[in-house]
Amino acid sequence: MTITGQERGKVRKIRDMRALYWAAVCLGLTVMGCKDTTFKGPVAKYGLDPAVENAPHFDEIDADPNEFSLKIAQAYADHKPGTNQLVNTYGLYLSSLAMLNVAEGDTYKQLADFLGISVFDLDPIDQASNHWLNEIKGSDQVKFGTGIFAIRPLQFDELSVMELANDLGVDTIEFGAAGLTAERAYKQWLSQFGFKKLPKEAFEIPDRTDLMVVTAALFDAEWATPFDPSDTRKAPFNTRKGQVSVDMMEAEVPAITSESEHWTAAELRYKGNRFAFSILMPSDEAQSPESALEETSTEEWMELINGFKTQAEHDVLLPKFEWKGTQDFFNLMDDVGLGGMKEDLNLSRLSLDIKKSKYWVSGWKQYNAITVNEQGTRIESVDQFAAAGDASMPFIVNRPFVYVVRDIRAGLILFVGIVNDPTLTQ
């Protein structure tokens, strides 16, 4: 059975009188239809619904982001075996979920299948994310934010904008003009994260882009038990091509272990014991991480991740490392069932304007950087989804044409001409 956005829309509702109150407030505060080149700020930022009572846990909903993370890890491992990689899987999940909330038709079906959703009602799924985003508000270790940006003038649908803000904390922003104005405003939105190592492309708007969905994330946390830099020394690390010498940290630290058919794992906690760094090595020393991922079932993955329970002191040797790079998810869209969105992207619940034009995915990249050292871990990430519409299609005049010069205000044609060969001057 095909799930359509229209059917799902029938079961979505304004949850209570508080939502009606927010709708009234939003209608009064929203800045719409900016036509000049001045950045007007958020079109609507209503804030997360402050108290979603009895919100389900992630493992209780139809689309568990932890199961989704395995799917994405397997796709990337198959795409670029033997390379260092980092993917903000929850950022990808949030961007896709935001789009799903305003999608219709085949786009809704593709996104639902991609996220593993088989139900009409998205409320429990949105509530689980809402609950987590509320919990981390004000955290000094992690920050997530999602924005939907109209690069060209676009009239947002009020109710959809309110739902995205309340459910997923989405900022919906209209720049009202392309070019440098939009780019400055986009950089302004990203500046709240304090990124230091991402490439300049992460702060730029791709050419011929009408609409962007961006999830940005910063994780910066110290180990609960830091490593002593004086104990860090050169040590061998076994790669596929042989041994290399690395800076190896060493410490007697509390660690939690877990294991499964394909994996031996240990987990190090960060200060506050809310977040953890889980290290998974293939049980078979001769097996690559990519091969082990390919053979790992969803059941084994979840059992392994949920198996970190018993803490004990361990002598841990962990290499210091830094990495930054760009993951081009656009090239993986066909492999994960989203290829149709390259031709037709239907987000018509977001804006009436979108219903009048043809849109498609023009790019989808993720920019990531990580540093792991004796003090802790810092991760910077921008997941950048770009869409183009008919208005962005290049108009290339490379064959004979007719031209007209006219008075637009009077509706009067003044001149008509024909060009068959631009090199002819008379």
Would you mind describing this structure in some detail?
This protein is of the alpha+beta class and 426 residues long. It has two domains: 5-220 and 324-392, 2-Layer Sandwich (Antithrombin, Chain I, domain 2); 233-319, Alpha-1-antitrypsin, domain 1. 27% of the residues lie in helices and 30% in strands. The chain has a seven-stranded mixed sheet with strand order 1-3-2-4-12-11-10. Strands 5, 6, 7, 8 and 9 form a five-stranded antiparallel sheet that branches. Helix 3 crosses helix 9 and helix 4 (89-100) runs antiparallel to helix 5 (105-115). It starts with a helix and ends in a 7-residue tail after the last strand.
Which features characterize this protein?
426 residues, Antithrombin, Chain I, domain 2, Alpha-1-antitrypsin, domain 1, 2 domains, 7-stranded mixed sheet, 5-stranded antiparallel sheet, disordered N terminus
